[in-house]
């Protein structure tokens, strides 16, 4: 064997195993990048297809599974998203679980699996104490309180958490949660005070966002992306109005009906338990 051939043979002995190992991962990374480009173009169906191809080359990759789950949830395919997240959370570190579990809790809530969502938020709380939080204290307490309220359980703890969350950060989300917890605890007058404040603040935020989004000279945004964000903001306000309407069914049925009509006609959602 010539010296040149011997060197080539030695190089191949090193390079080929690496190529066989890294080749599929590199292809997966290429598909992932292409998927993110599709998301930038607001082509979510195409992005999901590309992520599925990426997973063909990197099966079980938790980051790819979580990203595909996010897209599937946005496309309304919540059961498929849950399948991805339940696979993603297996065999990963506690720190990675800490990142994944809030996504799974959100999908559980979309599917109205309240108890399972609460279990995930409790696990996030436990892991946060061990590995350090990924959420502010206010946000974590708010999510725990709301999960308990939706599950209609441990309402005393939900009340304490919601109170602390509002004290730390009195934003519309936190005040809405406190109002809803107070409603569940059968304290409608206090609930109405919090929900009125939450609705007023959310209305102000929505109006400011809408003005900025349509202001001439702003960075152009894809129409579908703008519509998607508008829908999310309208839904947030609709949820708060629905919570307030539930309270006003006990205190002021005419105002409750006015809120229901506003949810239908102005915000274009159907009021009901699916709004949470």
Give an overview in words:
This protein has helices at residues 3-40, 44-57, 62-74, 78-88, 94-110, 114-131, 137-151, 155-168, 172-184, 188-213, 223-251, 253-265. By secondary structure, it is mainly α. The chain has a domain at 20-36 and 43-134: Alpha Horseshoe (Serine Threonine Protein Phosphatase 5, Tetratricopeptide repeat). Helix 3 (62-74) runs antiparallel to helix 4 (78-88) and helix 7 packs antiparallel against helix 8 (155-168).
Count of discrete alpha- or pi-helical segments spanning 4 or more residues: 12
Helix content: over 70%
Shape designation: globular
CATH class of the domain at 20-36 and 43-134: Mainly Alpha
SSE run: HHHHHHHHHHHH
So, CATH architecture of the domain at 20-36 and 43-134?
Alpha Horseshoe
Given helix and strand content, the structural type is mainly alpha
Strand content: under 5%
Average pLDDT score: 89
- Radius of gyration, in Å, reads 24 Å
Low-confidence stretches: none
CATH fold name of the domain at 20-36 and 43-134: Serine Threonine Protein Phosphatase 5, Tetratricopeptide repeat
User: CATH superfamily membership of the domain at 20-36 and 43-134, which one?
Assistant: Tetratricopeptide repeat domain
> How far apart are the termini?
74 Å
Strand tally is 0
Major β-sheet profile: none
């Amino acid at each position: 064997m010539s010296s040149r051939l011997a060197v080539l043979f030695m190089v191949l002995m090193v390079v080929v195993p690496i190529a066989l190992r890294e080749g599929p991962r590199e292809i997966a990374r290429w598909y992932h990048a292409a998927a993110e480009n599709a998301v930038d173009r607001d082509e979510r169906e195409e992005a999901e297809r590309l992520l599925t191809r990426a997973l063909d080359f990197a099966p079980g990759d938790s980051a790819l599974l979580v990203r595909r789950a996010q897209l599937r949830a946005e496309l309304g395919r919540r059961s498929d998203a849950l399948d991805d997240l339940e696979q993603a959370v297996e065999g990963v570190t506690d720190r990675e679980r800490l990142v994944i579990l809030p996504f799974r809790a959100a999908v559980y809530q979309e599917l109205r699996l309240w108890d399972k969502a609460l279990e995930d938020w409790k696990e996030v709380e436990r892991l946060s104490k061990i590995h350090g939080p990924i959420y502010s204290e206010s946000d974590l307490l708010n999510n725990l309180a709301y999960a308990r309220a939706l599950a209609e359980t441990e309402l005393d703890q939900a009340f304490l958490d919601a109170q602390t969350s509002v004290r730390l950060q009195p934003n519309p989300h936190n005040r809405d949660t406190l109002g809803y917890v107070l409603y569940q605890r059968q304290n409608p007058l206090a609930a109405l005070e919090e929900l009125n404040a939450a609705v007023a603040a959310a209305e102000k935020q929505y109006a400011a966002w809408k003005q900025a989004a349509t202001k001439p000279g702003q960075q152009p945004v894809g129409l579908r992306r703008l519509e998607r964000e508008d829908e999310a903001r309208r839904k947030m306000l609709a949820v708060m109005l629905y919570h307030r309407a539930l309270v006003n069914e006990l205190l002021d049925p005419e105002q409750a009906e006015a809120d229901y009509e506003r949810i239908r006609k102005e915000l274009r959602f159907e009021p009901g338990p699916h709004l949470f």
